[in-house]
Specification:
The protein has 73 residues and is an alpha+beta fold. It has one helix and three strands, in the order H-E-E-E.
Length: 73
């Protein structure tokens, strides 16, 4: 049985503990992995545009591919 805050007296330590555990379960289930791939084009002269950034979603999260000019730092 999963403890819920409503199973205990309002404001009690047990109720607050159950609420905290419930919040942690929700946050854990929402967390996804994010992989960021930064492709630096060294010597890019700006004559040709850089490739468009991409966001690839998959079951475990998202992969972001970002293209930047080598002189961006």
């Amino acid at each position: 049985m999963i403890d819920r805050p409503g199973n205990y007296q309002r404001g009690s330590i047990e109720s607050r503990t159950a609420a905290r555990a419930m919040l942690e379960r929700i946050q854990t289930s929402r967390q996804k992995n994010a992989i960021v791939v930064r492709i630096e084009h060294i010597g890019h002269d700006g004559k040709e545009p850089l490739p468009v950034s991409q966001s690839i979603r998959w079951g475990g999260g998202t992969t972001e591919i970002i293209h930047v000019s080598g002189s961006s730092l």
